[in-house]
Design a protein that fits this description.
The complex is a heterodimer.
Chain A lengths: L26 H11 L1 H26 L6 H13 L9 H31 L13 H4 L1 H20 L12 H8 L3 H28 L8 H28 L4
Helix pairs in contact in A: 1-2, 2-4, 2-8, 2-9, 6-8, 8-9
Chain B lengths: L2 E7 L8 E7 L8 H14 L22 E2 L2 E2 L20 E5 L8 E3 L2 E2 L2 H8 L21 H11 L6 H5 L6 H12 L8 H14 L10 H5 L7 H16 L1
Parallel strand pairs in B: 1-5
Antiparallel strand pairs in B: 1-2, 3-4, 3-5, 6-7
Helix pairs in contact in B: 2-6, 3-5, 5-6, 5-8, 6-8
Classes of the chains: A mainly alpha, B alpha+beta.
Protein backbone atom coordinates (compact mmCIF):
# COMPACT_ATOMS: atom_id res chain seq x y z
CA UNK A 1 0.00 0.00 0.00
CA UNK A 2 1.42 3.31 -1.05
CA UNK A 3 2.03 5.82 1.69
CA UNK A 4 0.53 9.17 0.98
CA UNK A 5 3.07 11.95 1.05
CA UNK A 6 0.59 14.70 0.39
CA UNK A 7 1.09 16.69 3.56
CA UNK A 8 -0.73 19.97 3.35
CA UNK A 9 0.55 23.01 5.12
CA UNK A 10 -1.90 24.61 7.53
CA UNK A 11 -4.22 27.16 6.01
CA UNK A 12 -2.76 30.63 6.61
CA UNK A 13 -6.08 32.14 7.61
CA UNK A 14 -8.67 30.88 9.99
CA UNK A 15 -12.10 30.84 8.40
CA UNK A 16 -14.14 33.74 9.65
CA UNK A 17 -17.72 33.33 8.65
CA UNK A 18 -20.88 35.05 9.73
CA UNK A 19 -20.42 38.02 12.01
CA UNK A 20 -17.46 36.57 13.87
CA UNK A 21 -15.75 39.41 15.69
CA UNK A 22 -12.96 40.96 13.64
CA UNK A 23 -9.80 41.81 15.56
CA UNK A 24 -10.32 45.12 17.31
CA UNK A 25 -8.03 48.11 16.76
CA UNK A 26 -6.63 48.16 20.30
CA UNK A 27 -6.49 45.24 22.71
CA UNK A 28 -8.67 46.86 25.38
CA UNK A 29 -11.27 48.30 23.07
CA UNK A 30 -11.55 45.07 21.15
CA UNK A 31 -11.88 43.17 24.37
CA UNK A 32 -14.83 45.17 25.65
CA UNK A 33 -16.50 45.11 22.28
CA UNK A 34 -16.05 41.34 22.06
CA UNK A 35 -17.58 40.87 25.49
CA UNK A 36 -20.55 43.16 24.96
CA UNK A 37 -21.15 41.69 21.50
CA UNK A 38 -21.34 38.05 22.56
CA UNK A 39 -23.98 36.15 24.51
CA UNK A 40 -21.37 34.87 26.97
CA UNK A 41 -19.82 38.30 27.48
CA UNK A 42 -23.16 40.00 28.02
CA UNK A 43 -24.11 37.31 30.48
CA UNK A 44 -20.80 37.94 32.27
CA UNK A 45 -21.77 41.62 32.56
CA UNK A 46 -25.04 40.47 34.13
CA UNK A 47 -23.15 38.18 36.49
CA UNK A 48 -20.70 40.85 37.69
CA UNK A 49 -23.34 43.56 38.12
CA UNK A 50 -25.65 41.03 39.78
CA UNK A 51 -22.98 39.99 42.28
CA UNK A 52 -22.24 43.66 42.99
CA UNK A 53 -25.92 44.30 43.76
CA UNK A 54 -26.05 41.12 45.82
CA UNK A 55 -23.11 42.28 47.95
CA UNK A 56 -24.88 45.61 48.45
CA UNK A 57 -28.13 43.85 49.39
CA UNK A 58 -26.35 41.79 52.03
CA UNK A 59 -24.90 44.93 53.67
CA UNK A 60 -28.23 46.75 53.28
CA UNK A 61 -30.10 43.87 54.94
CA UNK A 62 -27.66 43.74 57.87
CA UNK A 63 -27.94 47.53 58.26
CA UNK A 64 -31.74 47.27 58.32
CA UNK A 65 -31.55 44.99 61.35
CA UNK A 66 -30.46 48.09 63.31
CA UNK A 67 -34.16 48.93 63.43
CA UNK A 68 -34.54 46.33 66.20
CA UNK A 69 -32.17 48.33 68.43
CA UNK A 70 -34.34 51.43 68.46
CA UNK A 71 -34.52 54.82 66.75
CA UNK A 72 -31.18 56.11 68.02
CA UNK A 73 -29.24 53.13 66.64
CA UNK A 74 -31.03 53.21 63.30
CA UNK A 75 -30.89 56.96 62.76
CA UNK A 76 -27.31 57.10 64.00
CA UNK A 77 -26.34 54.42 61.51
CA UNK A 78 -28.09 56.31 58.70
CA UNK A 79 -26.20 59.46 59.68
CA UNK A 80 -22.90 57.59 59.85
CA UNK A 81 -23.42 56.37 56.27
CA UNK A 82 -23.40 60.03 55.22
CA UNK A 83 -20.22 60.82 57.10
CA UNK A 84 -18.43 57.74 55.76
CA UNK A 85 -15.15 58.58 54.02
CA UNK A 86 -14.76 61.99 55.73
CA UNK A 87 -12.58 63.94 55.58
CA UNK A 88 -11.46 62.55 52.23
CA UNK A 89 -15.07 62.77 51.03
CA UNK A 90 -17.51 65.47 51.95
CA UNK A 91 -20.72 64.81 53.90
CA UNK A 92 -23.03 62.54 51.88
CA UNK A 93 -20.57 61.92 49.06
CA UNK A 94 -20.09 58.28 49.92
CA UNK A 95 -23.82 57.65 49.52
CA UNK A 96 -23.90 59.44 46.18
CA UNK A 97 -20.94 57.41 44.90
CA UNK A 98 -22.65 54.22 46.03
CA UNK A 99 -25.88 55.33 44.32
CA UNK A 100 -24.04 56.08 41.07
CA UNK A 101 -22.32 52.67 41.07
CA UNK A 102 -25.59 50.89 41.88
CA UNK A 103 -27.48 52.80 39.21
CA UNK A 104 -24.84 51.83 36.64
CA UNK A 105 -25.12 48.21 37.79
CA UNK A 106 -28.93 48.23 37.56
CA UNK A 107 -28.84 49.77 34.07
CA UNK A 108 -26.18 47.39 32.73
CA UNK A 109 -27.95 44.40 34.31
CA UNK A 110 -31.30 45.45 32.89
CA UNK A 111 -30.08 46.31 29.40
CA UNK A 112 -28.16 43.02 29.14
CA UNK A 113 -31.18 41.08 30.40
CA UNK A 114 -33.46 42.80 27.91
CA UNK A 115 -31.15 42.23 24.94
CA UNK A 116 -30.41 38.61 25.84
CA UNK A 117 -34.10 37.88 26.47
CA UNK A 118 -35.08 39.32 23.09
CA UNK A 119 -32.48 37.07 21.51
CA UNK A 120 -33.56 34.00 23.48
CA UNK A 121 -37.22 34.43 22.59
CA UNK A 122 -36.34 34.88 18.91
CA UNK A 123 -34.18 31.74 18.97
CA UNK A 124 -37.17 29.55 19.86
CA UNK A 125 -40.07 30.97 17.85
CA UNK A 126 -42.22 27.81 17.87
CA UNK A 127 -43.09 25.90 21.02
CA UNK A 128 -43.99 22.25 21.57
CA UNK A 129 -47.38 20.69 22.34
CA UNK A 130 -46.19 19.55 25.75
CA UNK A 131 -44.62 21.91 28.22
CA UNK A 132 -41.78 20.20 29.97
CA UNK A 133 -41.07 21.53 33.42
CA UNK A 134 -37.51 20.47 34.01
CA UNK A 135 -36.43 23.87 35.32
CA UNK A 136 -37.13 25.29 38.76
CA UNK A 137 -39.71 27.97 39.60
CA UNK A 138 -36.92 30.42 40.40
CA UNK A 139 -35.40 29.83 36.94
CA UNK A 140 -38.66 30.35 35.10
CA UNK A 141 -39.51 33.57 36.95
CA UNK A 142 -36.19 35.37 36.40
CA UNK A 143 -37.54 37.76 33.76
CA UNK A 144 -40.83 38.68 35.44
CA UNK A 145 -39.10 38.69 38.81
CA UNK A 146 -36.57 41.16 37.45
CA UNK A 147 -39.35 43.44 36.19
CA UNK A 148 -41.08 43.27 39.59
CA UNK A 149 -37.80 44.19 41.28
CA UNK A 150 -37.20 47.12 38.92
CA UNK A 151 -40.70 48.48 39.69
CA UNK A 152 -40.14 47.92 43.39
CA UNK A 153 -36.87 49.90 43.22
CA UNK A 154 -38.80 52.94 41.98
CA UNK A 155 -41.34 52.57 44.79
CA UNK A 156 -38.66 51.95 47.38
CA UNK A 157 -36.68 55.09 46.46
CA UNK A 158 -39.88 57.19 46.49
CA UNK A 159 -40.84 55.65 49.83
CA UNK A 160 -37.74 55.67 51.97
CA UNK A 161 -35.14 57.76 50.11
CA UNK A 162 -37.12 60.78 48.89
CA UNK A 163 -40.09 60.13 51.21
CA UNK A 164 -42.52 61.14 48.46
CA UNK A 165 -44.97 58.27 48.98
CA UNK A 166 -44.14 57.69 52.66
CA UNK A 167 -46.93 58.71 55.09
CA UNK A 168 -44.32 60.54 57.19
CA UNK A 169 -41.38 61.12 54.87
CA UNK A 170 -39.22 63.14 57.26
CA UNK A 171 -35.60 63.46 56.20
CA UNK A 172 -33.01 62.24 58.71
CA UNK A 173 -35.56 60.09 60.55
CA UNK A 174 -35.49 56.73 58.75
CA UNK A 175 -36.66 54.82 61.83
CA UNK A 176 -39.85 56.84 62.12
CA UNK A 177 -40.41 56.69 58.35
CA UNK A 178 -40.03 52.90 58.32
CA UNK A 179 -42.51 52.48 61.17
CA UNK A 180 -45.00 54.87 59.57
CA UNK A 181 -44.65 53.16 56.18
CA UNK A 182 -45.13 49.63 57.41
CA UNK A 183 -48.27 50.61 59.33
CA UNK A 184 -50.04 50.84 55.96
CA UNK A 185 -51.26 47.58 54.41
CA UNK A 186 -50.10 48.41 50.86
CA UNK A 187 -46.50 49.09 51.86
CA UNK A 188 -46.39 45.68 53.52
CA UNK A 189 -47.88 43.91 50.50
CA UNK A 190 -45.52 45.62 48.03
CA UNK A 191 -42.53 44.96 50.26
CA UNK A 192 -43.30 41.30 50.96
CA UNK A 193 -43.93 40.49 47.29
CA UNK A 194 -40.68 42.22 46.30
CA UNK A 195 -38.68 40.40 48.98
CA UNK A 196 -40.00 37.03 47.80
CA UNK A 197 -39.07 38.05 44.26
CA UNK A 198 -35.57 39.05 45.32
CA UNK A 199 -35.13 35.72 47.11
CA UNK A 200 -36.13 33.77 44.02
CA UNK A 201 -33.95 36.00 41.84
CA UNK A 202 -30.91 35.36 44.05
CA UNK A 203 -31.68 31.65 44.24
CA UNK A 204 -31.20 31.28 40.49
CA UNK A 205 -28.97 34.32 39.94
CA UNK A 206 -26.17 33.53 42.35
CA UNK A 207 -25.41 30.08 41.05
CA UNK A 208 -25.98 31.28 37.46
CA UNK A 209 -23.37 33.97 38.01
CA UNK A 210 -20.94 31.33 39.24
CA UNK A 211 -21.61 29.24 36.14
CA UNK A 212 -21.38 32.25 33.82
CA UNK A 213 -18.06 33.37 35.26
CA UNK A 214 -16.79 29.82 34.93
CA UNK A 215 -16.30 29.25 38.65
CA UNK A 216 -18.48 26.14 38.71
CA UNK A 217 -16.63 22.87 38.37
CA UNK A 218 -18.20 19.40 38.37
CA UNK A 219 -17.48 18.99 42.10
CA UNK A 220 -18.69 22.42 43.22
CA UNK A 221 -22.02 22.69 41.36
CA UNK A 222 -24.04 21.28 44.27
CA UNK A 223 -22.20 23.42 46.83
CA UNK A 224 -22.86 26.61 44.85
CA UNK A 225 -26.54 25.74 44.48
CA UNK A 226 -26.82 25.18 48.22
CA UNK A 227 -24.96 28.46 48.81
CA UNK A 228 -27.45 30.26 46.56
CA UNK A 229 -30.38 28.85 48.54
CA UNK A 230 -28.87 29.84 51.90
CA UNK A 231 -28.00 33.33 50.66
CA UNK A 232 -31.47 33.83 49.16
CA UNK A 233 -33.20 32.64 52.33
CA UNK A 234 -31.02 34.77 54.62
CA UNK A 235 -31.50 37.96 52.61
CA UNK A 236 -35.25 37.47 52.25
CA UNK A 237 -35.69 36.61 55.94
CA UNK A 238 -33.56 39.59 57.03
CA UNK A 239 -35.51 42.09 54.95
CA UNK A 240 -38.91 40.59 55.79
CA UNK A 241 -38.14 40.76 59.52
CA UNK A 242 -38.49 44.57 59.44
CA UNK A 243 -42.15 44.84 58.32
CA UNK A 244 -42.97 41.79 60.44
CA UNK A 245 -41.37 43.60 63.40
CA UNK A 246 -43.52 46.69 62.77
CA UNK A 247 -46.69 44.62 62.25
CA UNK A 248 -46.19 42.67 65.46
CA UNK A 249 -45.30 45.79 67.43
CA UNK A 250 -41.73 44.74 68.21
CA UNK A 251 -40.65 47.87 66.34
CA UNK A 252 -42.72 50.98 67.06
CA UNK B 1 -49.71 -2.76 20.79
CA UNK B 2 -51.59 0.02 19.05
CA UNK B 3 -50.73 3.71 19.19
CA UNK B 4 -52.24 6.96 18.05
CA UNK B 5 -49.54 9.21 16.62
CA UNK B 6 -49.89 12.91 16.08
CA UNK B 7 -47.06 13.89 13.75
CA UNK B 8 -45.94 17.25 12.42
CA UNK B 9 -46.38 17.20 8.65
CA UNK B 10 -44.86 19.96 6.55
CA UNK B 11 -44.21 19.39 2.81
CA UNK B 12 -41.28 21.85 2.62
CA UNK B 13 -39.58 24.75 4.36
CA UNK B 14 -41.90 27.39 2.89
CA UNK B 15 -45.28 25.68 3.34
CA UNK B 16 -47.14 25.77 6.65
CA UNK B 17 -47.27 22.56 8.61
CA UNK B 18 -49.80 20.88 10.88
CA UNK B 19 -50.14 17.99 13.31
CA UNK B 20 -51.81 15.01 11.62
CA UNK B 21 -53.17 11.94 13.38
CA UNK B 22 -52.27 8.36 12.42
CA UNK B 23 -53.24 5.03 13.94
CA UNK B 24 -50.42 2.47 14.01
CA UNK B 25 -51.35 -1.13 14.82
CA UNK B 26 -49.50 -4.31 15.78
CA UNK B 27 -46.41 -2.57 17.13
CA UNK B 28 -43.90 -4.89 18.75
CA UNK B 29 -42.50 -3.59 22.06
CA UNK B 30 -39.05 -4.59 20.77
CA UNK B 31 -39.26 -2.17 17.85
CA UNK B 32 -37.31 1.05 18.00
CA UNK B 33 -39.22 4.29 17.59
CA UNK B 34 -37.80 4.63 14.07
CA UNK B 35 -38.85 1.08 13.15
CA UNK B 36 -42.34 1.95 14.34
CA UNK B 37 -42.25 4.99 12.01
CA UNK B 38 -40.98 2.69 9.20
CA UNK B 39 -44.08 0.55 9.77
CA UNK B 40 -46.28 3.61 9.55
CA UNK B 41 -44.51 4.74 6.37
CA UNK B 42 -45.07 1.34 4.70
CA UNK B 43 -48.77 1.69 5.40
CA UNK B 44 -48.77 5.26 4.09
CA UNK B 45 -47.00 4.14 0.90
CA UNK B 46 -49.51 1.37 0.23
CA UNK B 47 -52.27 3.93 0.70
CA UNK B 48 -50.55 6.20 -1.82
CA UNK B 49 -49.72 8.87 0.77
CA UNK B 50 -46.42 10.65 1.35
CA UNK B 51 -44.31 8.88 3.99
CA UNK B 52 -43.20 10.82 7.07
CA UNK B 53 -39.70 12.23 6.46
CA UNK B 54 -37.19 11.85 9.30
CA UNK B 55 -33.40 11.80 9.55
CA UNK B 56 -31.63 8.58 10.51
CA UNK B 57 -28.42 6.78 9.76
CA UNK B 58 -26.58 4.38 12.05
CA UNK B 59 -29.58 3.40 14.20
CA UNK B 60 -27.23 2.42 16.99
CA UNK B 61 -27.13 5.73 18.83
CA UNK B 62 -23.70 6.91 17.76
CA UNK B 63 -24.12 9.07 14.65
CA UNK B 64 -26.43 11.85 15.81
CA UNK B 65 -28.52 11.87 12.63
CA UNK B 66 -31.88 11.04 14.15
CA UNK B 67 -33.83 13.14 16.56
CA UNK B 68 -37.38 14.28 17.14
CA UNK B 69 -39.36 15.69 20.01
CA UNK B 70 -41.60 12.95 21.42
CA UNK B 71 -44.31 14.09 23.84
CA UNK B 72 -42.38 17.30 24.41
CA UNK B 73 -39.06 15.61 25.19
CA UNK B 74 -36.10 15.61 22.82
CA UNK B 75 -35.50 11.93 21.87
CA UNK B 76 -38.51 10.94 23.97
CA UNK B 77 -38.93 9.68 27.53
CA UNK B 78 -35.63 7.77 27.83
CA UNK B 79 -32.15 9.25 27.94
CA UNK B 80 -31.06 7.93 24.58
CA UNK B 81 -31.32 8.70 20.88
CA UNK B 82 -34.62 8.24 19.07
CA UNK B 83 -33.23 5.21 17.19
CA UNK B 84 -32.42 3.51 20.51
CA UNK B 85 -35.76 4.36 22.09
CA UNK B 86 -37.84 1.20 22.20
CA UNK B 87 -41.58 0.92 22.04
CA UNK B 88 -41.68 -0.95 25.35
CA UNK B 89 -41.51 2.49 26.98
CA UNK B 90 -44.99 3.23 25.65
CA UNK B 91 -48.27 1.65 26.64
CA UNK B 92 -50.93 0.18 24.38
CA UNK B 93 -53.44 2.86 23.40
CA UNK B 94 -51.10 5.81 24.11
CA UNK B 95 -51.33 8.98 22.07
CA UNK B 96 -47.86 10.19 21.14
CA UNK B 97 -47.01 13.65 19.79
CA UNK B 98 -44.03 13.77 17.42
CA UNK B 99 -42.55 17.13 16.45
CA UNK B 100 -39.32 18.29 14.81
CA UNK B 101 -36.54 20.08 16.72
CA UNK B 102 -37.77 23.64 17.21
CA UNK B 103 -35.19 26.41 16.98
CA UNK B 104 -34.73 29.44 14.75
CA UNK B 105 -31.26 28.14 13.84
CA UNK B 106 -32.72 24.74 12.83
CA UNK B 107 -35.32 25.48 10.13
CA UNK B 108 -37.67 22.63 9.23
CA UNK B 109 -36.80 21.11 5.86
CA UNK B 110 -39.69 18.66 5.73
CA UNK B 111 -41.88 16.91 8.33
CA UNK B 112 -39.46 15.91 11.11
CA UNK B 113 -36.26 16.82 9.24
CA UNK B 114 -34.51 20.04 10.25
CA UNK B 115 -31.47 21.72 8.76
CA UNK B 116 -28.66 21.43 11.32
CA UNK B 117 -25.89 22.85 9.13
CA UNK B 118 -25.56 25.70 11.69
CA UNK B 119 -23.72 23.10 13.80
CA UNK B 120 -21.36 22.38 10.90
CA UNK B 121 -20.55 26.08 10.61
CA UNK B 122 -19.86 26.31 14.35
CA UNK B 123 -17.43 23.39 13.97
CA UNK B 124 -15.95 25.02 10.87
CA UNK B 125 -15.23 28.18 12.86
CA UNK B 126 -12.74 26.39 15.10
CA UNK B 127 -13.78 22.89 16.15
CA UNK B 128 -10.65 21.31 14.75
CA UNK B 129 -6.89 21.29 15.19
CA UNK B 130 -4.56 22.54 12.49
CA UNK B 131 -2.19 19.67 11.79
CA UNK B 132 -0.67 18.10 8.71
CA UNK B 133 -2.97 15.40 7.38
CA UNK B 134 -1.82 12.22 5.74
CA UNK B 135 -0.99 8.95 7.42
CA UNK B 136 -2.25 8.60 10.97
CA UNK B 137 0.51 9.65 13.39
CA UNK B 138 1.95 7.30 15.98
CA UNK B 139 -0.58 7.17 18.82
CA UNK B 140 2.00 7.68 21.56
CA UNK B 141 3.90 10.51 19.88
CA UNK B 142 2.13 13.04 22.10
CA UNK B 143 1.68 12.01 25.70
CA UNK B 144 -1.77 12.82 27.13
CA UNK B 145 -2.28 12.60 30.89
CA UNK B 146 -5.10 10.26 31.89
CA UNK B 147 -7.31 12.98 33.49
CA UNK B 148 -6.98 15.10 30.34
CA UNK B 149 -7.83 12.13 28.15
CA UNK B 150 -10.88 11.37 30.30
CA UNK B 151 -12.06 14.99 30.21
CA UNK B 152 -11.58 15.11 26.44
CA UNK B 153 -13.46 11.86 25.97
CA UNK B 154 -16.42 12.97 28.11
CA UNK B 155 -16.90 15.86 25.69
CA UNK B 156 -15.91 13.95 22.55
CA UNK B 157 -18.96 11.78 23.17
CA UNK B 158 -21.16 14.57 21.77
CA UNK B 159 -22.71 13.31 18.55
CA UNK B 160 -24.09 16.69 17.49
CA UNK B 161 -27.70 15.48 17.36
CA UNK B 162 -29.08 18.86 18.44
CA UNK B 163 -31.23 17.60 21.33
CA UNK B 164 -29.70 20.28 23.58
CA UNK B 165 -30.89 23.04 21.25
CA UNK B 166 -34.29 21.40 20.86
CA UNK B 167 -34.78 21.06 24.62
CA UNK B 168 -33.52 24.55 25.53
CA UNK B 169 -36.30 27.13 25.93
CA UNK B 170 -33.86 29.64 24.38
CA UNK B 171 -32.78 27.41 21.48
CA UNK B 172 -29.24 27.73 22.80
CA UNK B 173 -26.31 25.73 21.45
CA UNK B 174 -24.13 26.30 24.51
CA UNK B 175 -23.95 22.62 25.51
CA UNK B 176 -23.00 21.51 22.00
CA UNK B 177 -20.38 24.23 21.56
CA UNK B 178 -19.00 23.65 25.04
CA UNK B 179 -18.58 19.94 24.32
CA UNK B 180 -16.51 20.73 21.23
CA UNK B 181 -14.50 23.51 22.88
CA UNK B 182 -13.74 21.50 26.03
CA UNK B 183 -12.88 18.38 24.06
CA UNK B 184 -10.01 20.08 22.26
CA UNK B 185 -9.03 22.43 25.12
CA UNK B 186 -8.27 19.38 27.27
CA UNK B 187 -5.75 17.95 24.81
CA UNK B 188 -2.18 19.09 24.01
CA UNK B 189 -3.07 18.91 20.30
CA UNK B 190 -5.70 21.58 20.87
CA UNK B 191 -3.45 23.95 22.80
CA UNK B 192 -2.04 26.09 19.91
CA UNK B 193 -5.50 27.27 18.87
CA UNK B 194 -7.05 27.27 22.32
CA UNK B 195 -7.98 30.98 22.43
CA UNK B 196 -8.99 31.60 18.82
CA UNK B 197 -11.06 28.41 18.83
CA UNK B 198 -13.40 29.42 21.62
CA UNK B 199 -13.66 33.04 20.45
CA UNK B 200 -14.47 32.05 16.86
CA UNK B 201 -16.83 29.19 17.72
CA UNK B 202 -18.83 31.33 20.15
CA UNK B 203 -18.96 34.19 17.61
CA UNK B 204 -20.25 31.75 15.00
CA UNK B 205 -22.74 30.24 17.47
CA UNK B 206 -24.12 33.73 18.14
CA UNK B 207 -24.16 34.59 14.43
CA UNK B 208 -26.29 31.51 13.71
CA UNK B 209 -29.09 32.87 15.89
CA UNK B 210 -28.90 30.42 18.77
CA UNK B 211 -30.08 31.87 22.08
CA UNK B 212 -28.05 32.35 25.23
CA UNK B 213 -27.82 30.17 28.30
CA UNK B 214 -30.21 30.86 31.18
CA UNK B 215 -29.14 27.75 33.06
CA UNK B 216 -32.45 25.93 32.98
CA UNK B 217 -30.52 22.66 32.66
CA UNK B 218 -32.93 21.27 30.04
CA UNK B 219 -30.04 20.61 27.62
CA UNK B 220 -28.07 18.35 29.95
CA UNK B 221 -31.26 16.48 30.86
CA UNK B 222 -32.02 15.82 27.19
CA UNK B 223 -28.46 14.98 26.06
CA UNK B 224 -28.33 11.30 25.07
CA UNK B 225 -24.58 11.28 25.72
CA UNK B 226 -24.72 12.85 29.17
CA UNK B 227 -22.67 15.99 28.48
CA UNK B 228 -22.97 17.66 31.91
CA UNK B 229 -24.02 21.24 32.77
CA UNK B 230 -20.59 22.24 34.20
CA UNK B 231 -19.29 21.91 30.61
CA UNK B 232 -21.01 25.22 29.92
CA UNK B 233 -19.23 26.79 32.91
CA UNK B 234 -15.96 25.40 31.57
CA UNK B 235 -16.58 27.00 28.16
CA UNK B 236 -17.49 30.31 29.84
CA UNK B 237 -14.18 30.08 31.68
CA UNK B 238 -12.35 29.37 28.41
CA UNK B 239 -14.12 32.26 26.70
CA UNK B 240 -13.40 34.83 29.42
CA UNK B 241 -9.80 33.62 29.62
CA UNK B 242 -9.38 33.93 25.85
CA UNK B 243 -10.93 37.41 25.86
CA UNK B 244 -8.52 38.53 28.57
CA UNK B 245 -5.53 37.07 26.72
CA UNK B 246 -6.19 38.33 23.21
Amino acid sequence: MAMTTDIRTPAPQRPRTGSAAPPGPGPRRGRLRTLWGSTIGKKAVMAVTGLLMLAYLLVHMLGNLKVFFGPEDMNGYAHWLRTLGEPLLRYGWFLWIARAVLLAAVVLHGVSAYQLSRRDLAARPVGYRHRRRGSSYATRTMRWGGIILALFLVWHVLDLTTGTVNPRGQEGHPYENIVAGFRTWYANVIYLVAMLAVGLHIRHGFWSAAQTLGVTRPGTARLLKAGATVLAAAITAGFVSVPVGVMTGVVN
Amino acid sequence: MNLTLRIWRQPDAESPGEMRTYEVEDISPDMSFLEMLDTLNETLLTRGEEPVAFDHDCREGICGACGMVINGAAHGPERTTTCQLHMRHFADGDTVDVEPWRAAAFPVVRDLVVDRSAFDRVIGAGGYITAPTGAAPEAHATAVPKPAADAAFTHAECIGCGACVAACPNGSAMLFTSAKVNHLAALPQGAPERETRVLDMVAQMDAEGFGGCTLTGECATACPKGIPMPSIAAMNREYLRATAKR
